[in-house]
Records
---
Amino acid sequence: MISREPSDLLVAAREGSRTALARLLTYVESGGAHHRDTVTLAYGAPAPYVVGLTGPPGSGKSTLTDRLITLALERGRVDDAESFDQIAVLCVDPSSPFTGGAILGDRIRMQDHATNEHVFIRSMATRGHLGGLSLAVPEALRVLGAVLFPVVLVETVGVGQMEVEIASEADTTVVVTNPGWGDSMQANKAGLLEVADIFVINKADRPGVRETRRDLEQMLDLGAARSWRPLIVETSAANNDGTEALFEAIDAHRHFLGRENLFAARRRRTQGELDKVVATMLRSRVIDLARGSAYEREIEAVLEGRTDPYMAAERLLLEP
Ligand SMILES: Nc1nc2c(ncn2[C@@H]2O[C@H](COP(=O)(O)OP(=O)(O)OP(=O)(O)O)[C@@H](O)[C@H]2O)c(=O)[nH]1
Ligand SMILES: [Mg+2]
């Protein structure tokens, strides 16, 4: 029988137990009794290097991820210094928070790697974490770092606010588009432009690549100047064309980040995580209060015009 204690599980996971690792990630998702201890342990360890891939459904994220895994493992064998001998993949689909594994599992196109002992693939869902995916994902990334995965790939389906936010948890964010991308991403083009370090035009075997590239270049020209101009890479993941170039682009961005820059970006992200934890704790306190009479009293007071929602909220938050 495997222990339920996070510290025991961490030791076992570091020794290679996938069952132990899976349980730690379940603690993160479900926010139950062992959640806090898991997070404390995870944040005491170095963070992994994280590559995020996002883009509309079916754009080819999983196929690309599959190719990148192969390349990373090859490099790990060639170049010991990088020691990318272990790689983890998190698949996140914010549009289906409760289905988690089953549906995503069907869509994962990484079967070749699923049984490889150097690869760990996991679908993320929230099963009770009050902070939702936007907190569960960074915490899961920390757990994977603590279990000594040097690299984690995060595949997030979709291009809405939430998806982009999750993708931008990455050190290197890759936005996967297709020829004729404009239509599918109209709604959040600006948001994507802000977070993308690399744009991929996947399915480059289809017509419209040149127009899409021109479109992207124009957007980048109009966008705010940044110290890193996002790279544009054309791939045909299904045919394994251009995937080396994507790998090189990711590597180039990783080198660009270097130590200092990476640290600055991580500091910003850590602030975001802390803000979310504060918000989550406050919210859970209000939820607790909601079960009590004070909450009811404040609702009555607002209803009767004796107070306004801000004053009511302040009283609820400040007076335990
Ligand atoms: N023609 C063409 N088809 C591709 C290419 N890359 C992927 N596909 C196909 O596109 C479909 C979707 O690929 P996935 O890799 O599952 O895409 P995804 O973005 O992970 O999809 P979701 O996770 O469902 O959002 C599959 O049928 C792939 O075989 C490509 O370069 N060219
Ligand atoms: Mg996919």
---
Amino acid sequence: MKITFLGTGGGRFVMAKQMRRTAGFVVKTKESLIHVDPGPGGLVYLNKLRLKPRRPDAILVSHAHLDHSHDTAPLIELMTDGGRMERGTVLASDSVVNGIDGFIPAFGDYHKNMVERVLVSRPGKKYTIRDLEVTATPTWHDDPTGTGFILNDGETILAYLSDTGYTEELGDAIEKAEPTAIIFNLIFDGEERTSHTNLDTVRSIIQRVKPQVILLQHFGARITMRRMEGFLAKKIEKETGIETIALRDGDVVTLPWFEERTRKIDEFI
Ligand SMILES: [Zn+2]
Ligand SMILES: [Zn+2]
């Protein structure tokens, strides 16, 4: 499994000013290309990768905040060749698909009709997308229908928690999955328990599971402006004894983690 981080920025301020890119990340397995959480820039930076084939097979959207969902419709057009082929899967939260709790849907019927399958992600449910089994995980965040995703290609289990604070329910789901790697959307550097990912979230999860590597991204404005991400990664690594990486825009990570340690993180796009 190869993950390319098209963008590592998070939150409204980083997104609006593009202090870091907010394009999400793509996961490549033997049979699939999956774009996860395409915020503004998702379509642009996926195209810049010049992948062959370039079309995603699925788009996963964890919740309706724009830094996660904005480029869903443009990516549907790429995935379906402008609607000429009815293909691909969109797996997204209820808020993204149906526009509830004050959010408008990220795409309308026009785009829905281009896609082979539109699935609403519900915590605990499993979905099969080509060679991947995707399990939706619960979140505690401003969007009550948001979910994270656990991606399993039979060799590697990648847990992407999305924007969430720690809950027992989330801890249970991650412990059960025994992930190879965990991606944390570390928007804040705080230590208190809140509905956004911070040091408390990372610590609470890592008390329950021991992945090979901890991947930090989705850094908010304070972390980005003060360039704290490297320091925070070192702090987490020291506390947990698990290798912790502060990702940069364009980083490529190959899992399982023990292979080719030096090359994978310096392959910039
Ligand atoms: Zn976010
Ligand atoms: Zn959010």
